[in-house]
């Protein structure tokens, strides 16, 4: 069983939640969470699912992304260390204006780069 599956089950149990309660909190199906916890989720869990589970449990989203193997290999080492995760969180909380920032943010979050950039541009235009 994967480190992510073990951690998810442990965190859920420590929170005093059943799988059904976690399903309600995360808006993920009971059966899919059960598959994840048993290590039978198939080809992998999407970053969006990992994030939803972490948020529902109040856990470290970056650590969950690291444990679930959805982070690209070059970035795995960066997220393996708690201090590095704090640094990445601080970076993601800032909005510097240099070329490639949106791409880095999307890669770290495991999201589609193009939709991340277009969503940010839409938000900027709606605020202006």
Automatic annotation (TrEMBL):
SMART domains: HTH_XRE. Pfam families: HTH_31. One of its GO terms (molecular function) is DNA binding. InterPro entries: Cro/C1-type_HTH, Lambda_DNA-bd_dom_sf. PROSITE patterns: HTH_CROC1 (PS50943). SUPFAM superfamilies: lambda repressor-like DNA-binding domains (SSF47413). It comes from the Bacteria. Residues 8-65 form the HTH cro/C1-type domain. Transmembrane segments: none annotated. This is Anaerobic benzoate catabolism transcriptional regulator. It comes from Symmachiella dynata.
